[in-house]
Amino acid sequence: MKEETVLEQQKVRTVPTDTNMRELGKSVAKLVKEGDVLLLSGPLGAGKTTFAQGFGAGLSISEPIVSPTFTIARELHGTFADGKPATLIHVDAYRLGGEDFAPGQDTVSRLLDELESLGLDEALEEPGDGTVVLMEWGEQMAGVLASERLEVHIARPIDSSQVDDFTSDGERIVTLKAVGKDWLNRLAKL
């Protein structure tokens, strides 16, 4: 039995403004293709939705990109860089995987069960033609969702005087982690 090697590489960017965060999202969108899964992570107020707005602009989506926290998932339509139709499934997994599941069930199993009950499991496991999945708060399911993916972690360094200040102002540290050979090649172009 041959052991499988997981290929990973990461790039770290300092993003000084919300405009720069949107530009980064737009640049990443120019690299995506159908079937891609991107996972966004970071604390509240880090800039995940701001990145998603730029990502949507990069896919020429005209609808507003807002956090899907209360709707869990939104389906939006645009186009890929090559002009082909794109469907963005923007998922927020923050509210998924609560305690309403079998005792002893691990978090990943709870999350996957809830995705299945919402009808999102197939879209995430095997995105259809023209589909790209952008999931906020999905880092717990990273390996299960897609063996090839781009993980985007946004850190929001805050000094003690800004602890309760959740504005879009301020510098962010964004780590882009390519998992899988295809994403390694594309991340090199960013």
From TrEMBL:
Alphabetical GO CC annotations of the entry are: cytoplasm
Keyword tRNA processing among record annotations: yes
Q: Which GO terms describe its biological process?
A: tRNA threonylcarbamoyladenosine modification
A molecular-function term among this protein's GO annotations: metal ion binding
Q: What is its main location?
A: cytoplasm
Superkingdom of the source?
Bacteria
**Family annotation (InterPro entries):** P-loop_NTPase (IPR027417), T6A_TsaE (IPR003442)
> Could you tell me where this protein is found in the cell?
Cytoplasm
A Pfam family matched in the record: TsaE
| Keywords in alphabetical order | ATP-binding, Cytoplasm, Magnesium, Metal-binding, Nucleotide-binding, tRNA processing
What NCBIfam families does its record include? T6A_YjeE (TIGR00150)
Family in the record: Belongs to the TsaE family.
Q: Describe its function.
A: Required for the formation of a threonylcarbamoyl group on adenosine at position 37 (t(6)A37) in tRNAs that read codons beginning with adenine. Is involved in the transfer of the threonylcarbamoyl moiety of threonylcarbamoyl-AMP (TC-AMP) to the N6 group of A37, together with TsaD and TsaB. TsaE seems to play an indirect role in the t(6)A biosynthesis pathway, possibly in regulating the core enzymatic function of TsaD.
Q: What is this protein called?
A: tRNA threonylcarbamoyladenosine biosynthesis protein TsaE
